[in-house]
Specification:
Oligomer: single chain
Number of helices: 1
Radius of gyration: 74 Å
Shape: rod-shaped
Order of helices and strands: H
């Protein structure tokens, strides 16, 4: 009885082992079949991750280069703007200096013109005074010449009357007054020197 039971147990164990072995083979095949796609999927995801990393790095480098180029462009534009502003400021300063010089020259010219006008006015006044003096002197000279002429005429007439009178008296018996030449010292209308 004991041997039969042992044999039965052994057979059951063999059957169980055979069943397990028969089951393990398909399971191993299934595991193997599943592992290959999983490995391929993992490899594919790794490749995608690598490509994404490359794209990210490329994007980062592009952004960095763009930022650097933008900074350089901004710096160059700022430098150019500063140069333009400096040039405009220099032109403004030069224009201010030219304006100041022009204003100064205008003031000097106005002063010179004013002095010239005053000189002309003074010269005109002097000429007018001298002309009036010359006219007064000419008038006085004409008056003196007229008095002198009258004196000469009167003296000639007296000389002629004295020649015809034997006693030095005129024919009417009255003596003529003594004639004197015009006194230049006491003549109020004597010509000026």
């Amino acid at each position: 009885m004991a041997s039969i039971a042992g044999t039965r147990a052994a057979l059951e164990n063999q059957q169980t082992a055979a069943m397990i072995a028969a089951t393990q083979t398909p399971l191993a095949a299934m595991v193997q079949a599943t592992a290959v796609p999983l490995q391929q999927t993992a490899t594919h995801h790794a490749a995608i991750a690598t490509q994404e990393a490359i794209v990210v790095e490329s994007t980062r480098m592009a952004i960095s280069n763009e930022v650097q180029a933008t900074r350089q462009a901004i710096s160059a534009e700022a430098t150019r703007t500063q140069i333009i502003l400096d040039g405009q400021m220099q032109e403004i300063n030069q224009e201010a200096q030219r304006t100041q010089t022009t204003n100064l020259l205008t003031i000097i010219l106005a002063v010179v013109i004013g002095l010239a006008v005053l000189t002309i006015v003074a010269a005109g006044a002097y000429i007018l005074v001298q002309r009036q003096k010359a006219q007064a002197a000419a008038h006085a000279a004409r008056a003196y010449a007229e008095q002198r002429r009258l004196f000469i005429v009167q003296a000639a007439m007296k000389e002629q009357e004295n020649r015809h009178s034997p006693n030095g008296k005129p024919a009417n018996g009255r003596s003529q007054p003594t004639l004197h030449p015009p006194d230049l010292q006491n003549n109020p209308r004597r010509p000026s020197a």
